[in-house]
Amino acid sequence: MSAPLRNFGARKLLSKQAHPAILPLPAQQSGNNKPFSLKKTRRNWKPNVHIMNMPVNILGGAPTIAQNLANLNESKFVRGPHLKRVKLAARDKKTVDKAGGVEGLLLSLPASKLTPYGQLLRTELFRELHSIKAQIEANPEEKVAPKLIEGAVSAEAADAAEQR
């Protein structure tokens, strides 16, 4: 096992290696240019990859009051935690939106279709959802666990996705 994977549990989840990818990135393709003069020249087509900050609900935890105040000074919108500087192909942006964000994507895809970093995020997401489920079962009079944020995926959906 490589050093980054072995030491992953010791590090914070949101501070990670430089520009990891959650989904596999397409390969660079090569071929020939054929201009008007018909002289073939080699060229490469690079994939359309973007480095993005992706908002998360469960993986990042609830934002603190200090973080909210700091975000208010930066912009007029209060932002929660983000996965910072994640590589994503342009064609996969729509897939992430359709799945309901990063957490929905991690729940809907099998682990075999994710990169090693995506698999680690998926494992961490299931750990968080199971701890939320345990909190709910421990306190049946409370309707919602304190860490569960509105719009996040339910614990039952996590169980169903894990069984796939």
Give the SSE map.
Blueprint: H1 3-6, E1 29-33, E2 41-45, E3 49-55, H2 65-74, E4 82-89, H3 90-99, H4 102-108, H5 116-138, H6 155-163
Antiparallel strand pairs: 1-2, 3-4
Could you characterize what this model shows?
This protein has 164 residues and is of the alpha+beta class. The chain has one domain (29-163). It has helices spanning 3-6, 65-74, 90-99, 102-108, 116-138, 155-163, and strands at residues 29-33, 41-45, 49-55, 82-89. The strands form 2 sheets. A two-stranded antiparallel sheet has the order 1-2. Mean pLDDT is 76; it is low at 1-11.
Mean pLDDT: 76
Distance between the termini: 26 Å
> Tell me about the biggest sheet?
2 strands, antiparallel
Rg: 20 Å
Question: How would the global form be characterised?
Answer: elongated
InterPro entries: Ribosomal_bL28/bL31-like_sf
GO cellular component, one term: ribonucleoprotein complex
Keywords: Ribonucleoprotein, Ribosomal protein
